[in-house]
């Protein structure tokens, strides 16, 4: 039994949304790791952090907002259930989880939309 053919325009929309989401997930994940490292050094080991390093949290926050927007964009185009949106959105707040969830969503969406 063959799966139904996905309209090429929808495939293109989902493919673009997936690319943006993947980029945002990786950038958010990297900045979250940088932020976590800074916080562990500062609060865990008492390492004196330069004042310019305080901007790391703001940078991660900016990229996390971008991640949320791309999650909503992909969720709308892929017609996700609310639970999938929420779990995907929360993945940008836990170190390493954005990488895991990005790979999982990429695999799911690629298979579902025959990309």
What does this molecule look like?
The protein is elongated. The model has no long low-confidence stretch (mean pLDDT 94). Helix 1 runs antiparallel to helix 2, helix 1 packs antiparallel against helix 4 (97-112) and helix 2 runs antiparallel to helix 3. With 115 residues, it is an all-alpha fold. The chain has one domain (28-112). It contains four helices and no strands. It holds the Pfam family DUF3817.
Measured on Cα atoms, how large is the radius of gyration? Answer: 17 Å
Count of individual helical segments: 4
Mean pLDDT: 94
| Tally of strands | 0
Q: Give the termini distance in whole angstroms.
A: 19 Å
Instruction: Bin the helical content.
Output: over 70%
The low-confidence runs, each spanning 5 or more residues with pLDDT under 50, are none
Strand content: under 5%
Encode the helix/strand succession as letters: HHHH
What is the approximate shape?
Answer: elongated
Supply the helix-strand structural class: mainly alpha
Biggest sheet layout: none
Number of domains: 1
Summarize the structure.
The chain has 115 residues and is mainly alpha-helical.
Give the tags:
115 residues; mainly alpha; 4 helices; DUF3817_TM; membrane; cell membrane; Integral membrane protein
Topology at a glance:
Elements: H1 8-44, H2 55-78, H3 82-90, H4 97-112
Helix pairs in contact: 1-2, 1-4, 2-3
Keywords: Cell membrane, Membrane, Transmembrane, Transmembrane helix
Domain DUF3817: 18-106
Transmembrane segments: 20-40, 52-76
